Amino acid sequence: MRPKVVHVRGSVYMIDASYHGRRGVLGTYVVKGEEVAVVDPGPTVSIDGLVEALRDLGIDLSDVRYVAPTHIHLDHAGGSWRLLELCPGARLYIHPKGAPHMVDPSRLEAAARRLFGDRVDEYGEVRGVSEERVTVSVDGEELDLGGGLRIRVVWTPGHASHHQSYYIPDGKVVILGDAGGIYNRDLDVVIPTSPPPFNPEKAMRSLEKLAALRPEIVCYGHFGFADDAVKRLRAHREQLALWMRVVEEGLKEGAGMGELYDRLRSEDPMLGRLPAPGHFGGRAIERSPSVNLLGFVEYFKWLWRGGR
Question: Which tens digits make up the pLDDT trace of 142-172?
């Protein structure tokens, strides 16, 4: 299956590379100036399709300057080592908290297996990146791609402590990774993407930080892009607050996971619009509302143990 390339706006393109014969799993975003940044290259199994799409865009692999995951989770960053092999002039651009795990991904892979089991094998081979090719990010700095095109880096912890988003002033586009939830364009539904460890308080502050930039288009990692950016970012912040309230109240009353999910489904109109309880589309377990509910449950358990 050939990859699909969609123009977002201005210098930004979305690549939908096939993942085991399926589309709509991960949006890889390309920012194309005199040099090129590839945001969220995806897992190793998708890199061949990504490279094919880059060539369809007229991009020579030698022009790729940054391989820039929003965070180090394998579905977003697992194939970085392979893309760097193919792009000799590129550097991995990553949050400083994530950099050591991209050089030695053993703990990262082990953590993914604890949560998702053998399905991690579907991502393909996991290898480390040479430390000499790693550049750590600074919150608020701008990457210069030439010709006046810049990308502003925005640290957005919540989904992960090492999460960062990318704002392109030319076009007022923000690439969210997993900071804005999981998006289903057909249903116009967003749910939190919050498998543990997840920090909803930090996630809500990150959403306000992004909204303050006044973007016009939001680009989701899972999956696609949409307009009314500020409205969507703030609506998702309110959704996180709703999930926090429902989960905290439920846990204090002794509710189990099933009852917590039923309470959420009755109060969150987004969940109520899903075609069946627990179904979001596709096979990816990380899209399951029950897995993302677990992130909130574990957050409160951590908080009540004295977490900071």
Answer: 999 999 999 999 999 999 999 999 999 999 9
pTM of the model: 0.94
Flag whether pLDDT at 284 surpasses 60.
no
> If you count them, how many residues does the chain have?
308
Over residues 81-93, mean pLDDT: 97
HEC states along the chain? CCCEEEEEECCEEEEECCECCECCCCCEEEEECCCEEEECCCCHHHHHHHHHHHHHCCCCHHHEEEEECCCCCHHHHCCHHHHHHHCCCCEEEECCCCHHHHHCCHHHHHHHHHHHHHHHHHHCCCCCCCHHHEEECCCCCEEECCCCCEEEEEECCCCCCCCEEEEECCCCEEEEECCCCEEECCCCEEECCCCCCCCHHHHHHHHHHHHCCCCCEEEECCCEEECCHHHHHHHHHHHHHHHHHHHHHHHHCCCCHHHHHHHHHHHCHHHHCCCCCCCCCCCCHHHCHHHHHHHHHHHHHHHHCCCC
Q: What is the pLDDT of residue 280?
A: 42
Q: Is the pLDDT of residue 232 over 80?
A: yes
Closest CA to 97 of 64, 73, 133: 73
| Residues whose CB is less than 8 angstroms from the CB of residue 210 and which lie 6 or more positions away in sequence, other chains included | 154, 156, 165, 167, 174, 176, 179, 180, 233
Could you give the count of Cα atoms lying within 13 Å of 6 in the half-sphere of its Cβ?
14
Q: Which domains does the chain have, with CATH numbers?
A: 4-238 (3.60.15.10)
